[in-house]
Design goal:
The protein is built from one helix and five strands. By secondary structure, the chain is mainly beta. The protein has a five-stranded mixed beta sheet with strand order 2-1-5-3-4, with no helix packed on it. A hairpin with a 3-residue loop joins strand 1 and strand 2 (10-14). The longest helix has 7 residues, at 21-27. The relative contact order is 0.31.
C-alpha cells in the first residue's frame, strides 16, 4: 500500500503485509498517541483493517495553546 506521512516533512513510502493501523504505526516506529491515521479520507482507530488498495495518510497530532 502507498502511505503518505506528514511528520512534519512530507514523504511517501510503500508498505507490504500490514493488516491493522496499529501494526502499520509500529512498523514505521511511530507513536499511535501522537499520530492520526486517515484511510480513504476517513479518520480511523488502531483496530481498523487496511488493505493494499487503501489510501493511507499519517499526520502528526499537534497540540498547543
Amino acid at each position: 500500500m502507498r502511505v503518505k506521512i506528514r511528520n512534519p516533512q512530507r514523504r511517501e513510502i510503500d508498505v507490504q503485509g500490514v493488516k491493522l493501523v496499529d501494526q502499520l504505526l509500529r512498523k514505521l516506529n511511530l507513536n499511535p498517541e501522537s499520530h492520526l491515521v486517515v484511510v480513504n479520507g476517513e479518520l480511523v482507530t488502531g483496530d481498523r483493517h487496511i488493505s493494499e488498495e487503501d489510501t493511507v495518510e499519517i499526520v502528526s497530532a499537534i497540540s498547543g495553546g
